[in-house]
Structures
1.
Amino acid sequence: DAGVTQSPTHLIKTRGQQVTLRCSPKSGHDTVSWYQQALGQGPQFIFQYYEEEERQRGNFPDRFSGHQFPNYSSELNVNALLLGDSALYLCASSTGLKSWTGELFFGEGSRLTVL
Amino acid sequence: AQRVTQPEKLLSVFKGAPVELKCNYSYSGSPELFWYVQYSRQRLQLLLRHISRESIKGFTADLNKGETSFHLKKPFAQEEDSAMYYCAFSLRYNNNDMRFGAGTRLTVKP
């Protein structure tokens, strides 16, 4: 089991552009959460997907959107990029509502730089 | 607002010394609390959770509802404990919505 996989690992965009980040959860997991981690900060919760729906959302603008596919993989989309969107984006998977344990399994992240 | 505070960004101790990483939370209910750790060049991973009341790698953490704290302790630090530690909480039964503190970087010197 490769665990949680994310792509791409690094990318550079310019202000105003759009970006899509991808995540495949750990085998057996049905819930995907996305986090933004700025330099020197802890992960900040963006949103969570379960059963292909956004179930929970943190304090992020509508420029941040997502999707979950039937195979439980997920995408994070950010529109109209700002310099402040530069960060490490982490995907975490879990077993979700059916058997809540509180444990999140993280990917290695996608590092986004906005110029 | 629900929040986790880790007052120390950096903490340095010598090998064999006791270590305590502080964590305070603000929430009027009963959150579920966790410690996550990130070793150098590794992913963020769960260290221990309050609900399990377990000791992992010699670390323990006690929930003090009166002081709204969940400090992480180890009586004898080892060099391999050097890592970034994050305190986190989730509202019970609330869809794994985990909120993290800013983290404390622990360095254990030989």
2.
Amino acid sequence: DGGITQSPKYLFRKEGQNVTLSCEQNLNHDAMYWYRQDPGQGLRLIYYSQIVNDFQKGDIAEGYSVSREKKESFPLTVTSAQKNPTAFYLCASSPQYQETQYFGPGTRLLVL
Amino acid sequence: AQSVTQPDIHITVSEGASLELRCNYSYGATPYLFWYVQSPGQGLQLLLKYFSGDTLVQGIKGFEAEFKRSQSSFNLRKPSVHWSDAAEYFCAVGAPGGYQKVTFGTGTKLQVIP
């Protein structure tokens, strides 16, 4: 079955630590996205990638970094510069940029 | 840039009753419009989308939505709600041509009472 997988389901970060969230898709989609979801705020775009080896900042990129070395993979690193990382993180992909997006199951990041 | 408003933060309906969730958008031309549903702790699932053509769009799980250009609305409807429909619903708007990001509303949480 084609789809998007995110791991881990829960992630705990200590102060000053960088953590990486995994996102993999086997839909052969060109575009991939990372969103942050906080209660009552909807989805906010962190980074997006239209094609391999290219990515762009979204609305709230500060404190985050990404890479897109393979079409199937778009990992997100939450760096120590992100002072309020506790949130639900959603990865999505679409056949091409701004077409219908399909979402993974999400990763919940908590701070110890 | 486009924007989207979901005026109802929380809605409660009785099982078997009809449902309408409101979505208003702001965009200078005909946008792309989407409805997604999210169960607690899960990702978003696409219910339906509108790109062009027939303004009444049928989706999965018995949902439908109607694009009304004159009202800048894309309301989601279901004639008879089931307890399993309890979830959060997000409306989203995109711009044809791919030059602007898809914008999501803040969501409407649906509670279904027996």
